[in-house]
Amino acid sequence: MLASVTVGARDVEWADILAALGGSADGFSEAAVAKRIPRTLLAVLAGAALGVAGAVMQGVTRNPLADPGILGVNMGASLAVVVGMAFFGLTAANSFVWAAILGAGITALFVYAVGSLGRGGATPLKLALAGTAISAALASFISAVVLPRNDLAGGVRSWQIGGVGGGSFDAIGQVLPFLAVGFLVCLVTARSLNSLALGDELAAGLGERVALARGTAALGAVLLCGASTAVTGPIAFVGLMVPHACRLLTGVDHRWLLPFSAVAGAALVTAADVLGRVIARPAEIDVGIITALIGAPFFIWIVRRQEVRAL
C-alpha cells in the first residue's frame, strides 16, 4: 500500500503524502497522492474480495480450477451491468452493485447446472469448460450490446479490462456494505467448508446441512464477486492463484485459508496495479492485463497436474 501511494508515473515525497493526508492537495504531487489513496484502498478491497471468493468457490465445488473469472461469474456480473447501463439508464455505483450481484448469481447457478449434466456430475474439468464457454458467450453478448451504442462503447471497453484507476471514496463507500456482508458470510461458513471437503455424505453424517452450507458460502462468494466487479470490472485469475498459494502456507483449513487469501489477494492486486504504472510510464497498464499475464500460465500448470480431479 505504501508503494502504491508513492510510486507511479510521478514519484512523490513524504511531505506530499502528509499534505494529501491532511486534506491539502494544492500542488500537483499532493493531488496525485490524493488520487492514489482511494485507488489503493480499492485495490486492497477488490483483491481481498476476489481472493476469498476464489477460496470459497473452490471449497464449495471441491474444484481446484474454480475462480470467479474461469467459472464465468465475473463476466455474468459485467453483462448485467452493461445491460443496465444500456437499457435501464444505470449510472450510479450502488445500482451497478445490485445488477452485478444479480448477474453473478444467475451465472454461477447456470454454470453449475451445465457442468452437472452427463455422467459423473459436476467434475472440475466440466465446470471449467462450462465456465469458459459461457464466459465467451457472455463476452459476445456484451459486445453485441455495446457496439450499437457509441455513447457507451469507450467507457465499457475500458471498464471491461478490469482496473482500479477510477477508484474514489464515493464508489468505495457504496460497495463497502456489500463487501462487508460478503466477507462475514464467507468467514462464518469456514468450518462448514472444512466439512464439505470430506464429501457430502460424510459431511451430512457429521451433522452438516450440506445444501444450506453450500448455498450460504456460494452467496457470500457471489456478493464479493458482484460488488468488486461493479467498481473495478472483471479482474481474472486472482481467485485462482491466491488460494493455491495460501494452501502452501496454511494447509486446507478454511478458518486460516480465508483470512490468508484476503491478505494475499489484496497484496497481489495492489502489486499488479503498481507494476502496471511503473513498466509503462507515463501511461498505465490495467490490473486485469497484469493478472491475466501471470494467471494464464498458472492456470495451464494447474490443469496439467494430476490433482485436478478434486480437492
Structural description of this entry:
This protein has helices at residues 2-6, 14-21, 28-61, 73-87, 93-115, 124-146, 150-161, 169-188, 190-196, 200-205, 210-232, 238-250, 254-278, 287-304. The two termini are 33 Å apart. It has two domains: 1-36, no CATH class; 45-309, ABC transporter involved in vitamin B12 uptake, BtuC, CATH 1.10.3470. 75% of the residues lie in helices and 0% in strands.
Q: What summary fits the major beta sheet?
A: none
Structural class: mainly alpha
In percent, how much strand structure appears in the residues? under 5%
User: By CATH's scheme, which homologous superfamily of the largest domain applies?
Assistant: ABC transporter involved in vitamin B12 uptake, BtuC
CATH architecture assignment of the largest domain? Orthogonal Bundle
> Which bin fits the share of residues in helices?
over 70%
What count of domains describes the coordinates? 2
Order of helices and strands: HHHHHHHHHHHHHH
> Between the first and last Cα atoms, what is the distance in angstroms?
33 Å
Count of distinct strands: 0
Rg, rounded, reads 19 Å
Q: How many helices?
A: 14
Q: So what's the CATH class of the largest domain?
A: Mainly Alpha
CATH overall fold name of the largest domain: ABC transporter involved in vitamin B12 uptake, BtuC
Identify low-pLDDT runs.
none
Average pLDDT reading: 86
Instruction: Categorize the overall geometry.
Output: globular
